[in-house]
């Protein structure tokens, strides 16, 4: 048993003064709340105490959509004039030379940075299944590289395993396989990690341009069989809508519904260009959405209709996608600011769905809703859930002066002004410390730099 004590504790609804969390040996929360009450819990006697003075303790954040290897593309989105040219000039050439050592170094970098920014669960949408030199199937080994990197850093990982069966262009050779091969690999991976509480496996037909109807149906069927949700990139760029109309005879979500796959297991990634009819359709079918505001800005995708979706009751989670700056607190802030630019008013997401402004609605996007779309039992400091927790320094300048007051002011600062990489001091996943005093315990900074120095995929970029 472990007992964590902090000056402020985030519970669903807001921050409470002088809180405590009691965690069992498996890493699940037994009790959370006022210090005196938690100490009086029958199982609290003899628990090892971790006191966090000058800290607030909150649930770890969830990046519900990430492509870890894309950290290698940092800076590249500043050059090309269009998404399509960026894919051709930067993304696909990187994919072509990304061997396993480079993939591992990229994932270690991405996940380490996430941990230091207070992410405790990553939804890793993985679609590199074939070898870099001869395109031979390497799905299992490549999956283990990424899952192994998350394990070394200590992050909880939802491995969102893509199904990609379209192979028309240079660069897609590393993704493509038959839906049957994909289904077999996903079943095997799911079975292999069935006993591991820190790894979940979800199927994900890549998109309407990367997956055929058969692949999409395979993903939806597998989700039902495995008891998981399934993810798909949808309506990210305006061109995705035109593509869907041209090749499938309807707008993207209408097509999914026509194929009979849209239901409460469906999780859309992006959904920027959903029509009003499609937004209502998603709400009616009880699907969910993952938004990636910083990436959407970087790639010139557009602004997702988050206020409209939330007003309809659609759960919205957040992802760091391209991972130029993998930081879910930053995504919370960007999500709200983009809505303000679009709606030309303030406090958009904090007021959507309620009479009084409540930053909890924004905080939930980066925590509870993220856990839900990844089928992970975390996202809040509540009994029964995993003790995935982040300690923040109340004296960090980015939280002042709000942290002097605490309570609702502190929550507003967390969703709008926090500088996560300096404010987050300690991170725990299932009660185990993965970041101590701003350093990743399992992957020292020097080891990370060395892994990147040795990564072959980085070399052409250095010479360029
Ligand atoms: Zn993506």
What's the number of helices? 20
User: Overall 3D geometry?
Assistant: globular
Average pLDDT, rounded to a whole number, is 95
Would you tell me the structural class of the helices and strands? alpha/beta
Helix content: 25-40%
Chain oligomer state: single chain
Strand content: 15-25%
Task: Kindly report the name of the CATH homologous superfamily of the largest domain.
Answer: Metal-dependent hydrolases
Q: Taking Cα atoms only, what radius of gyration do you get, to the nearest Å? A: 21 Å
Task: Give a nutshell description of this structure.
The protein is an alpha/beta fold and 464 residues long. It is built from 20 helices and 16 strands.
Mind explaining what this structure looks like?
- Strands 3-2-1-4-13-14-15-16 form an 8-stranded mixed sheet.
- The longest helix is centred in the first third of the chain and has 17 residues, at 100-116.
- It contains 20 helices and 16 strands.
- Helix content is 39%, strand content 22%.
- The protein has 2 domains: 2-60 and 380-441, Urease, subunit C, domain 1; 61-373, TIM Barrel (Alpha-Beta Barrel), CATH 3.20.20.
- With 464 residues, the chain is α/β, with parallel strands linked by helices.
- Strand 2 and strand 3 form a beta hairpin.
- The mean pLDDT is 95.
- The structure holds zinc ion.
- Zinc ion is lined by residues 65, 67, 125, 233, 269, 321.
């Amino acid at each position: 048993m472990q007992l964590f004590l902090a000056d402020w504790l985030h519970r669903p609804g807001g921050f409470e003064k002088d809180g405590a969390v009691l965690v069992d040996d498996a890493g699940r929360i037994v009790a959370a709340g006022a210090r005196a009450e938690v100490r009086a819990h029958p199982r609290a006697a003899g628990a090892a105490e971790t006191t966090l003075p000058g800290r607030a303790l909150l649930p770890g954040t969830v990046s519900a959509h990430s492509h870890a290897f894309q950290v290698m593309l940092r800076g590249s989105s500043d050059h090309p004039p269009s998404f399509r040219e960026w894919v051709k000039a930067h993304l696909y050439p990187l994919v072509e030379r990304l061997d396993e050592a480079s993939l591992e170094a990229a994932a270690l970098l991405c996940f380490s940075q996430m941990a230091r920014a207070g992410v405790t669960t990553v939804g890793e949408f993985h679609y590199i299944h074939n070898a870099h030199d001869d395109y031979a199937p390497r799905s299992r080994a490549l999956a283990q590289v990424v899952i192994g990197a998350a394990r070394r850093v200590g992050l909880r990982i939802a491995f969102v395993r893509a199904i990609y069966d379209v192979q028309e262009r240079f660069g897609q050779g590393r993704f493509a396989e038959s839906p049957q091969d994909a289904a077999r690999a996903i079943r095997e991976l799911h079975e292999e990690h069935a006993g591991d509480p820190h790894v979940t496996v979800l199927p994900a037909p890549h998109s309407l341009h990367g997956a055929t109807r058969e692949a999409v149906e395979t993903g939806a069927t597998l989700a039902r069989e495995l008891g998981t949700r399934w993810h798909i990139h949808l309506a990210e760029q305006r061109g995705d809508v035109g593509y869907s109309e041209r090749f499938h005879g309807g707008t993207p979500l209408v097509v999914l519904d026509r194929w009979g796959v849209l239901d409460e297991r469906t999780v859309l990634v992006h959904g920027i260009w959903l029509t009003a009819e499609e937004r209502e359709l998603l709400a009616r079918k009880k699907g969910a959405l993952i938004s990636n505001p910083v990436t959407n800005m970087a790639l010139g995708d557009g602004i997702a209709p988050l206020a409209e979706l939330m007003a309809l009751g659609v759960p919205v989670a957040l992802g760091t996608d391209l991972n130029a700056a993998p930081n879910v607190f930053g995504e919370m802030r960007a999500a709200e600011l983009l809505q303000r630019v679009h709606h030309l008013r303030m406090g958009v997401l904090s007021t959507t769905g309620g009479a009084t402004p409540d930053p909890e609605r924004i905080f939930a996007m980066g925590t509870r809703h993220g856990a839900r779309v990844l089928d992970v039992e975390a996202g809040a400091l509540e009994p029964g859930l995993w003790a995935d927790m982040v300690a923040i320094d109340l004296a960090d300048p980015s939280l002042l002066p709000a942290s002097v007051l605490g309570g609702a002011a502190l929550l507003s600062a967390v969703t709008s002004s926090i500088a996560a990489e300096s404010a987050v001091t300690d991170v725990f996943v299932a009660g185990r410390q993965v970041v101590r005093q701003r350093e990743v315990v399992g992957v020292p900074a020097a080891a990370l730099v060395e892994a990147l120095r040795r990564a072959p995929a980085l070399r052409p970029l250095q010479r360029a």
